[in-house]
Design brief:
By secondary structure, the protein is α/β, with parallel strands linked by helices. It has a domain of 89 residues: D-Maltodextrin-Binding Protein, domain 2. The protein has a 5-stranded mixed sheet with strand order 5-4-6-3-7, sandwiched between helices. Strands 1-8-2 form a 3-stranded antiparallel sheet. The radius of gyration is 17 Å and the shape is globular.
């Protein structure tokens, strides 16, 4: 795109506020496109489809196919604060104990250390956690419990930037680049070894 990229790491609950305050130009952090979010920001995309899944060490839990199978008082569930995952748990898993987390690493650690039974997150996050911890008995669902479009959030006032991003995203989709990237990052794990 012939622009300089500067990454600005922030906790997920602060991302849209940072965008609205002008601290960042776009949010591209597995951000689900929702009607509520489009009130304040514009979404470009979707660039992929995801959905709610679970991360667990239990093979029984990793085999569920409906939310009702895990909507039990005995389960403690980690969920990213102010996320669509939190909304999903509050709506569909009201019988469980909700543990709010600030980032996914915290949630993965809670699952790994048996402090929660599972973490509800987007399928991509769960797949990544399983790939990053191959010897930990982590598991995720084969198919998500929901279907959610994921896009790039930008300021609603920046129509020129929206046009630029939209054109590039359409080109990446039309030429198959998005499929190649999905396969590289979510189906293959060779890149995991380069992480610290």
């Amino acid at each position: 795109m012939n622009v300089k990229l500067t990454m600005v790491p922030k906790p997920f609950p602060q991302l849209l506020a940072a965008l609205k305050a002008g601290e960042v130009d776009m949010v591209m952090s597995n951000m689900s496109i929702t009607a509520q979010r489009t009130v304040d920001v514009t979404f470009i995309g979707p660039y992929m489809l995801s959905g709610k899944s679970i991360l667990t060490k239990s093979t029984n839990l990793a085999a569920v196919s409906t939310p009702s199978e895990i909507n039990k008082a005995e389960f403690k569930i980690a969920v990213l604060e102010n996320s669509t995952s939190q909304q999903f748990v509050e709506k569909n898993l009201a019988e469980t104990t909700l543990i709010k987390i600030q980032d996914y690493e915290e949630g993965v650690d809670l699952v790994l250390n048996n402090k929660v039974d599972l973490m509800v997150a987007d399928m991509t996050i769960c797949i990544l956690a399983v790939m990053r911890h191959p010897d930990s008995a982590l598991a995720t669902l084969n198919a998500p419990l929901t279907l959610e479009p994921v896009g790039i959030a930008i300021s609603s006032e920046d129509t020129q930037f929206a046009n630029l991003l939209g054109n590039y995203l359409a080109m990446f989709k039309g030429t198959g680049v998005l499929d190649i990237l999905r396969k590289k990052w979510l189906e293959e794990d060779a890149w995991i070894s380069s992480l610290p």
